[in-house]
Amino acid sequence: MQRSSRQELQSTLEQLKIAEAELSELNRQLNTFEVAVDAQLGDLLDQLSELNAETASLDAKLRHIREERLFGSDLMQYLEGAPQSARKSNKAEIPPLGLVDRAAIHAKNGAPTGSAALPVPDIKALYRKLARRHHPDLARNSADRLAAHEQRAETNRLYQAGDIRALMRLAGMWLPYGMELPDDLAPLNGRSSAALSEQEQAQQKLKAVRVQISRLSNLPIIKLSLDVKLAQHQGRNLLREMAGELQYKVGRKVAERDYLTAQINIHGGIGDGN
Description:
By secondary structure, the chain is mainly alpha-helical. The protein has nine helices and no strands.
């Protein structure tokens, strides 16, 4: 029985070694591709995000001006004082950085006892990485675009909450065993990590690595990297084509911004309302 247990442990450790190597290679390929995406599309993606936020603000301002002219300022002030129903945004734009005190976050999310050497990434850099990774304009179909919106909204929520561990998990970064694992990776039978046998700990770690591999493999940006390779075989530069598409979108957003600004000027709304 003892020999069988040792064999089981050895088998699990070998599987774990293979899985960790696969995860490491997947992360390497992903990081290499993200560098290429950032070099060719990064500025355009950032510009488009800023324009989306700017046009949304201008549109809200113009709507306020028109409603105030239609209903009168007294009624508008009364309505604005009434409780507002919560509305979900369909867009997951990048919120302004600098809203979170990184030092406080690192203190709150410091490495657990026994893992002081754990490298805790800069939360802003990690957030930008994830926001870029899940940018809807990198999706090549409607299903991936919807998934990107949902993932980006989750990234925004975690960033605002300062939950760097959850952001690390979302990024597929390895967390030491027992470091606030998600519910689907909680210690077996509700026991603490210290109460688990070496075999159980190895199994749990193997499960965690495989979950991370699955999550990374299903990212839209991974699918995009495969599309880029396929396009290369066809003699096409897909990232260059996407840059052209993004430039077109930026141009349309600039035109929309200028139109909204002109409408606000026409209505004499500069400095009025919010």
